[in-house]
Specification:
Elements: H1 2-15, H2 22-25, H3 28-47, H4 51-64, E1 68-69, E2 81-86, E3 90-95, H5 101-104, E4 106-112, E5 117-128, E6 131-139, E7 152-159, E8 165-170, E9 180-181, H6 197-200, E10 208-211, H7 223-236, E11 246-252, E12 257-259, E13 265-268, H8 271-286, E14 292-298, H9 315-326, H10 331-337, E15 339-342, E16 346-347, E17 369-372, E18 376-377, H11 388-401, E19 405-407, E20 417-418, H12 422-426, E21 431-436, E22 438-439, E23 447-450, H13 451-465
Parallel strand pairs: 1-2, 4-14, 4-15, 15-21, 16-22, 17-19
Antiparallel strand pairs: 2-3, 3-14, 5-6, 5-11, 6-10, 7-8, 7-11, 9-10, 12-13, 13-23, 17-21, 18-20
Length: 466
Amino acid sequence: MADKKERAKERYSELAYEKKNFFETASKKERKAMYAYAEGYKAFLDAAKTEREACEAAVALAEAKGFTEYHFGDPLVAGDKKYFINRGKSVVVFRIGTRDLETDGMRLIASHIDAPRVDIKQVPLYEDSGMCFLKTHYYGGIKKYQWTAIPLALHGVVVLKDGTRMDVKIGEDPKDPVFYINDLLPHLGGEQMTKTGGKIIEGEQLNVVVGGLPNADAEAGKRIKFTVLDYLNKEYGMCEEDFLSAELSAVPAFPARDIGFDRALIGAYGHDDRVCAYPALTAVLNEESEHTVLAMLVDKEEIGSEGTTGMQSKIYEDLMEEISVALGANFRRVRYASKCLSSDVTAAYDPNFAGAFEKMNSAMLSCGTCMSKFTGSRGKSGSNDASAEFVGEVRRMFDKEGVIWQTAELGKVDGGGGGTVAKFLANLNIDTVDLGVPVISMHAPWELISKADLYSNYLAFVAFMK
């Protein structure tokens, strides 16, 4: 009887599906590798708090691995290692393989390097009640109340009247000042706390405190504003009019940190989506492939992938065509034979907010990178919805290489949802499926991920390149 029960248990184990916790299955060597890999990722995060900085950091890593810049019209041969920069805000890093492009196509990994933040308006600077502020317009989907009462850093560029570009980065060095968005004290917040979450803080209340010291010249008009303008002029050559041609953003001043006694988790700003962009980048930098492989690190995903640097820009299709032509291949055939992983994060199941999830089809922390057959909202609106055939193909790739992975959808069917860049690549008739790291507190100023999922994502990209 006992043997019969044991056989039934074994048979059930063979037939049933259960997610695997990567930490539980990893060897000591694998665990050491994933912790070491996380250190490089944290350094990348701290260097890349805007899409411009992420582009620069990616190029620096590429050049350290012997990659050189590509320009349209350059000749290409098998073995070439190149990167292409689009306006300093997106970068495509690629290797030229030996396989026939028309038969095997390209292997594409597309991630985004922008993240939710608070942008400075073009006419921002004003003084009121002993403080000087910058007016803002938030970027991407945020809970506005989360951005108050935390230390902020100011990042970006200012193009002066004469065309000179000045880079700005204040608040990251421990010796730097930081900046701040006010909130209302609870003693006076009774009315505020009766409002819905979306109204607790209004967009026009996200004003950043940048000064409080009156200028010594009593005849100077707005004396605190004058102090700020005087500082900006001495440090960056700016006058107030130069805000008109500036791109400045307030971002959390926190560095990436390990979370937990066991250091299994990472807290940081910008996991969405640099936790996918970094593995995509390093997979192409570190691993040779017979395929021609591209890591596409793009901008503007958080606001619809629009503009010259978003995934909807023609530039990325043009680059693929340029590569094809340089190698003597018919681009249409190359495009139709290509395959893509659209690598963006998904929501990790959070037991503290269980009501927002359908647990059986939610991503579990530390159970590996997560494939999402479809995204969108409610009735899969705005989704790519990958074919079963392509999902099966990617599944076999991962299983062959021993990648720990899982599937999920983003929350309950009628709970909301979200989109990725997948549909824009699928619109080119390229088989595409979403693959990314589960995130706790997505779009918050500080998000949480598992080192196991980060490393699994990297291994998945390596398997895909093979």
